[in-house]
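Honest question from a wet-lab person: if I give you the sequences of every part of a complex, can you actually get the arrangement of the whole thing, not just the pieces? Trying it with mine:
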Amino acid sequence: MSRSGGYYHLLKAVIYRDLLIWVRYPVDAALGLVMGVFFFGVMFYGGSLLAGEAIGESIEGLVVGYFLWTLSLGAYSGITNEIRSEASWGTLERHFITPFGFGPVMLAKAVAIVLRTFLTSAIVLAVMLLMTGTSLDLNVLTVVPVAILAIASALGLGFAMGGLSVLYKQIGNVLNLLQFSFIGLISAPAFDLPWLKALPLAQGSALLQRAMTEGVRLWEFEPAALAILVATAVGYLAAGYVAFGLATRRARRLGVLGDY
Amino acid sequence: MARATADAETETARPTPSPDDAALYVDGLAKQFGDVTAVDGVSFAVESGAVVGLLGPNGAGKTTTIKSILGLVSPDAGEVRINGVDARARPRAAYEQVDAMLEGARNDYWRLTVRENLRYFAAVRGQNPDRLTARHEELLERFDLAEKADTQVRSLSRGMKQKVSLASALAGDVSVAFLDEPTLGLDVESSLQLRREIVNLAEDRGLTLVISSHDMEVIEDVCDRVVIMSDGRVVADDTVENLLAGFEVRGYRVTARDVPDETVAAVRDAVDVTEVTALDGQTRIEVAGDSAAFYRLTNVLEAHGVDLDAVETIQPDLAEAFVEMTGAE
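Yes, you can. This is the full assembly:
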């Protein structure tokens, strides 16, 4: 039989499957949300006790930074966990034997993960705003594209590390350690030290702060700032995707693609 | 003998049918892992609609061969064509009509329901799942899964999980499917049912199936042809009947009443007796050899006035043929 579906059906099926799997591990899904809010609460209330009013002056920046951290963490660990789980379930190889090719199917999975991450991070953001009594400028046309471009670099890192986990299997410690570096990248002073803008997340974090705390619209950013954001997003995502492709190619040469 | 013929054929001839006509065409496939040669010049072809068994002892190279055909392992050399399309040069086009059940039950998502798995894997195969609803219902009915269609796979028995794996491999309406150990771990009844459905599917839908199995009965029951591998090489490639015919009759078994000891002794002098069993007044004598040995046996028995109750030929089954060809235990 000839093909009756295309990328639309693939994407729809991948997104639906991702959401179904997420809700069917309810404890994991709920704990992810609860822990996300809990850690913010510890930071906020702990910070208030220790620093008093000082924390109040930087609370908006803290909320935006934490929001981006949950987004980037969700995208990064989402894609690495997906690749590791699929390998252990024995389903990874089935995605290789497809008329779409392995790469496009994995990209579809990345889209699904980003969508789910936005959903969960939005819930955490709403709770953070309620908890702190702060308000942020949430212009969707600005926040969503800037946030997507910001976490694209984290997704690229996720692809690269996912590729390494296909190749070397047990690298959980490295994967976990890398996610802590996101805190540094998100809080990097990209406006003060221009070279930091080339790092993953840094430029996105800086622009997202301005968009959400100062109300700057997407079209109001300097073209050069947007160009750096797009370049780092595309660059890191492409590099991660290529690294994933190289790692899976080597895994196929070694015959370890589906082993776990 | 089949083994010698097959060796000679695989070393000198390209497999038939031709690369463009075959549903699956493999020529000179080779894969080395370090010092270990996993696949060594494997060649065979499968015509459209055929069910071919890939048989071999552990480490024979069956799984590596299948994975190399599917591109999951990069072969060092060789040509693979699926429905005439070069799988190494144009993998997306080649795998358009292919799916595989690779490793027992864990081949799909256990947190999804049976139906959700079928719809998902149909979409990954480039199909619109809505257009395959009838096909999926048929698969559910065929594998006795209709009542469990909306149950998560994790709640099913091992046998049912195996069926879901098979159904999901066929959910994209593919024309070529690879089934790696499809009955592994199943009880006798489930195995028989799955075998029956594999045969029906192949006949009804003209599916081309390549089945790898340790289970001789599965191969003997289900397959039109068998490719036997040993040490990474094809040692035989023929129909089950022809493979067994290559061994011909191994001997004869005669049963008669009240056979005196001196008659048995005379038989022993005349032919190569492999076993004599006496039970409830009946004596069963097994002799090795061809028809000439059989005539010498009957001549001796006739000369001693013994009437025969039954005569049987002793023929090897596929397991015996397999052991002889591969040297496996």
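Two things worth pointing out. The two ends of chain B are 20 Å apart (CA to CA). The first strand of chain B starts at residue 24 and ends at 33.
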